[in-house]
Amino acid sequence: MGKAKAKILIIEDDTSINEAYNLILTKAGYEVESAYDGNEGLKVVDTFKPQVVLLDLRMPHLDGVGVLTNLSDD
Q1: Longest Cα pair distance anywhere in the chain, in angstroms?
Q2: DSSP tally for the chain: helices H, then strands E
Q3: φ and ψ at residue 9, rounded to 5 degrees
Q4: Per-residue confidence at 1, pLDDT binned at 50, 70, 90?
Q5: How far is 48 from 41, CA to CA, in rounded Å?
Q6: Can you tell me whether residue 53 is helix, strand or coil?
Q7: Average pLDDT of every residue of the chain
Q8: Which residue among 3, 20, 26, 45 is the one 20 to 30 A from 11 at the CA level?
C-alpha cells in the first residue's frame, strides 16, 4: 500500500487560477480544498488540517501576509 499524499489547501481569490491548481493537484492524487479569500482560508485550515498551503499574497479582505501572521500565531 502506498504512502498517502499530502492534504493541500489553495487560498487564491482568482477563480480560474484556484480551479486550475485544484484540478492539477487532484489529478496528481492529492486531497485538495480551496478557499477564495484569507478569512475563508483560515476557517478551512481549522477543519481540513492541511500539510501544505498554496497562498496568494494579494487578496481582498485578509491578504496572504495576514493569513501567514494568523497561522504563525497558532
Answers
A1: 43
A2: 3, 3
A3: -110, 130
A4: low
A5: 10
A6: strand
A7: 93
A8: 3
